[in-house]
Design goal:
- With about 300 residues, the protein is α/β, with parallel strands linked by helices.
- It folds into two domains: about 1-20 and about 30-160, Ribokinase (UDP-N-acetylmuramoyl-L-alanine:D-glutamate ligase); about 170-300, UDP-N-acetylmuramoyl-L-alanine:D-glutamate ligase.
- The protein has helices at about 40-50, 60-75, 110-120, 145-150, 180-185, 195-205, 245-255, 260-275, 285-290, and strands spanning about 1-5, 10-15, 30-35, 55-60, 75-80, 80-85, 90-95, 100, 130, 155-160, 210-215, 220-225, 225-230, 295-300.
- Strand 7 and strand 8 (about 100) form a beta hairpin.
- The protein is globular.
- Belongs to the carbohydrate kinase PfkB family. LacC subfamily.
- Pathway: Carbohydrate metabolism; D-tagatose 6-phosphate degradation; D-glyceraldehyde 3-phosphate and glycerone phosphate from D-tagatose 6-phosphate: step 1/2.
- It comes from Anaerococcus nagyae.
- One of its GO terms (molecular function) is 1-phosphofructokinase activity.
Length: about 300
């Protein structure tokens, strides 16, 4: 079973404006709201591919009820831990550029934490846990370690900055930083001359597979026996939100369904690209149409 973990889910409230002026009253011409959180994005991608993932995390209040009912409407399973405080609302302003205002998240009591840990401790070595997104401000910064210490589950992890290094000794099946995140992790300027060196370091430190997103330049894949580069696929960027999450979901789906790492990487590229070319998380038909165009070759030494 594939489980996705979103400790700090949200309602993402999207407002489209013709223009935005700081310090003035601004009026939107269109509003939308969706259940948000990186793990939820992965679940939507997996569901579109035909998988049946289960969402884990904390939800509470009227906002939590909205998240739960929205996932039910999409046919996505959940086993959230209910808390007394309200789940957060994030505001996304879209005009000539994009501005996001993300809330810190709810207060979670010790009793609620223990209930969650008891629940997640039932996962086993046949399961895969996809960990991503922020930790609510009331929880310890090392809360992901508490989760991993609960069981011996295969997992991926998507966290920002040097914090990722703390989890490599747990041997994640995949990490997927972009260039900017790789620079934050190692405190070095990354370019073509040293990209492969630092990507390999993530592999050497314990990550079983590494995907480095390079935006318009495509991505690279590193594992113990493979170094590959996927060329970028042309198309009009519509929505960058969820593209990285879609890559993670596509790779895990591929491995779970018997694909080689190379073929799982190609599927990951197709999923990420298809989402970037869609208004929301990509549909299966577009993913497999894009997959026909994915070109993967050896890279570096």
């Amino acid at each position: 079973m594939i489980y996705t973990l979103t400790l700090n889910p949200s309602i993402d409230y999207i407002m489209r404006l013709y223009e935005y002026k700081d310090g003035f009253t601004n009026r939107s011409y269109e509003e939308m709201k969706f259940p948000g959180g990186k793990g939820i994005m992965v679940s939507k991608l997996l569901k579109n591919l035909g998988e049946d993932p289960i969402n884990l995390g904390f939800i509470g209040g009227f906002t939590g009820e909205y998240i739960k009912s929205s996932l039910k409407g999409l046919g996505i399973k959940e086993n959230f831990t209910f808390i007394e405080d309200d789940s957060r609302i994030n505001v996304k302003l879209k005009y000539r550029s994009e501005t996001e205002i993300n809330a810190g998240g709810p207060f979670i009591s010790d009793e609620e934490v223990n209930e969650f840990l008891d629940n997640i401790s039932t996962l086993n070595s046949n399961d895969t846990l996809i960990i991503s997104g922020s930790i609510p401000k009331s929880l310890d910064d090392n809360f992901y370690k508490q989760i991993l210490d609960c069981n011996n589950v295969d997992f991926t992890i998507d966290v920002a900055g040097k914090e990722l290094l703390d989890y490599l000794s747990y041997n994640p099946i995949l990490v997927k930083p972009n260039i900017d995140e790789l620079e934050m992790i190692f405190g070095e300027k990354i370019d073509k001359s040293n990209l492969l060196h630092y990507a390999k370091r993530l592999n050497d430190l314990g990550a079983q597979s590494v995907i480095i997103s390079m935006g318009k330049d495509g991505s690279i894949f590193i594992s113990e026996d493979l170094i590959l580069k996927a060329e970028p696929i042309e198309g009009r960027l519509i929505n960058s939100v969820g593209a990285g999450d879609s890559m993670v979901g596509g790779f895990v789906y591929g491995l779970k369904n018997g694909l080689s790492k190379k073929e799982a990487y190609k599927l990951a590229v197709a999923c990420g690209t298809a989402t970037a070319l869609s208004e929301d998380i990509a549909k299966k038909e577009l993913i497999y149409e894009i997959l026909k165009r994915v070109e993967v070759n050896g890279y570096g030494n």
